């Protein structure tokens, strides 16, 4: 790709090339004059034609001096698409218009935007700079999403920064959240299995990649289309971290009360905080899907937090689960002791083994409906095989 630097007496042409860590600009593809690192500390500004709003140039800060590189509109769009999510852009208003508000959270506002170039709808997550931890939340979410590529994880499009806020552009999911779904409908066991399998597969992927989410809850599980449970996405990676960094935050109560593993709150019990905290959160979601009731509840945030801290697994909770297989699975996912709790891979293995067919063939079982169905082997034997 070609671009031009305009000077007082003459213009100079350059080639633009990319590698994994930088965008390089030079007089040839072999000789680089400007090497722009692909990281969130790099800011790219844009110049737009006032007549037709076409892109005219991109701008970099080179040794404390602004340098503009002019190119065809379509070339600049290709540059923008490649850099999306890798660096920070300025001036979101020249690319998108706001078309709707979704929600306002304590630390962020979320609204829909539409691209001027493609008319596609996206979601914008805006974090106000004056709010505490906004920069860390921004950096963590973007850096984490940059390293993840999974069908059940929301896609990062690009990021912007204004004078007052950080803005993360994400794919738009129009099917609503699992939280909204559970408010208005009771799921069948087949639907629960479809949802749970996707959540566990996503957690396995995250943990295999060395990450832990730390805030898995129904609000953070969105469906791509309304009523289609077979395609969901996990969102909100602002407090995620590397598994190797979990112990550094062992004194911080990170997560959402009601879905937090008790060891996060009970720092005094000397239980190591591991990636199994995501499994507990997933178990709390499973309990909600199976019973219609919260695993941990409270009349206010203080009571909810206290009940989360004092939570212990008991038979009264499990008796609400009618399906024996799910009761066995759940008992190992929501155990208060992380040493007694299974990991995500074991939970997924058991869920898949729950679908093992009987030894009797389908044709035989149709004619022998009174024959007993083979029972699934004991839970403990199953998870030790994983």
From TrEMBL:
<feature type="domain" description="Protein kinase">
    <location>
        <begin position="96"/>
        <end position="353"/>
    </location>
</feature>
<keyword id="KW-0067">ATP-binding</keyword>
<dbReference type="GO" id="GO:0005524">
    <property type="term" value="F:ATP binding"/>
</dbReference>
<dbReference type="InterPro" id="IPR008271">
    <property type="entry name" value="Ser/Thr_kinase_AS"/>
</dbReference>
<dbReference type="GO" id="GO:0004674">
    <property type="term" value="F:protein serine/threonine kinase activity"/>
</dbReference>
<keyword id="KW-0547">Nucleotide-binding</keyword>
<dbReference type="Pfam" id="PF00069">
    <property type="entry name" value="Pkinase"/>
</dbReference>
<dbReference type="GO" id="GO:0005737">
    <property type="term" value="C:cytoplasm"/>
</dbReference>
<dbReference type="InterPro" id="IPR000719">
    <property type="entry name" value="Prot_kinase_dom"/>
</dbReference>
<comment type="subunit">
    <text>Monomer.</text>
</comment>
<dbReference type="GO" id="GO:0044773">
    <property type="term" value="P:mitotic DNA damage checkpoint signaling"/>
</dbReference>
<dbReference type="GO" id="GO:0005634">
    <property type="term" value="C:nucleus"/>
</dbReference>
<protein>
    <recommendedName>
        <fullName>Protein kinase domain-containing protein</fullName>
    </recommendedName>
</protein>
């Amino acid at each position: 790709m070609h671009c031009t630097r305009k000077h007082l007496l003459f213009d100079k042409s350059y080639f633009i090339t990319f590698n994994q860590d930088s965008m390089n600009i030079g007089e040839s593809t072999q000789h680089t004059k400007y090497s722009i690192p692909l990281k969130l500390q790099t800011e790219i500004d844009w110049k737009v034609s006032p007549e037709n709003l076409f892109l005219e140039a991109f701008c970099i800060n080179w040794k404390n001096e602004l340098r503009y590189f002019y190119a065809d509109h379509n070339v600049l769009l290709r540059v923008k698409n490649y850099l999306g999510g890798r660096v920070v852009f300025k001036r979101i208003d020249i690319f998108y218009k706001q078309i709707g508000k979704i929600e306002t959270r304590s630390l962020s506002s979320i609204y829909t935007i539409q691209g001027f170039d493609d008319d596609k709808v996206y979601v914008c997550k805006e974090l106000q700079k004056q709010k505490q931890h906004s920069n860390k939340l921004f950096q963590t979410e973007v850096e984490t999403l940059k390293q993840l590529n999974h069908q059940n994880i929301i896609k990062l499009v690009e990021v912007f920064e204004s004078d007052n806020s950080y803005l993360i552009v994400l794919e738009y999911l129009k099917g609503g959240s699992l939280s909204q779904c559970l408010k208005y409908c009771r799921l069948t066991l087949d639907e629960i299995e479809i949802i749970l399998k996707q959540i566990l597969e996503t957690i396995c992927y995250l943990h295999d990649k060395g990450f832990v989410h730390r805030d898995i809850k129904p609000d953070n599980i969105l469906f791509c289309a309304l009523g289609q449970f077979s395609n969901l996405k996990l969102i909100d990676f602002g407090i995620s971290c590397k598994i190797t960094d979990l112990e550094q935050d062992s004194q911080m109560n990170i997560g959402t009360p009601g879905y937090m593993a008790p060891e996060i709150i009970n720092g005094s019990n000397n239980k190591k905080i591991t990636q199994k905290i995501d499994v507990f959160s997933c178990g709390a979601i499973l309990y909600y899907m199976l019973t219609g009731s919260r695993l941990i509840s409270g009349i206010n945030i203080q009571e909810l937090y206290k009940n989360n801290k004092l939570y212990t697994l008991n038979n009264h909770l499990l008796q609400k689960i009618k399906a024996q297989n799910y009761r066995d699975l759940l008992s190992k996912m929501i155990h208060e002791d992380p040493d007694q709790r299974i990991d995500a891979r074991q939970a997924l293995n058991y869920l898949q083994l729950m679908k093992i067919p009987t030894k009797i063939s389908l044709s035989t079982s149709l004619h022998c409906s009174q024959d007993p169905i083979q029972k699934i082997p004991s839970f403990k034997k199953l998870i030790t095989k994983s």
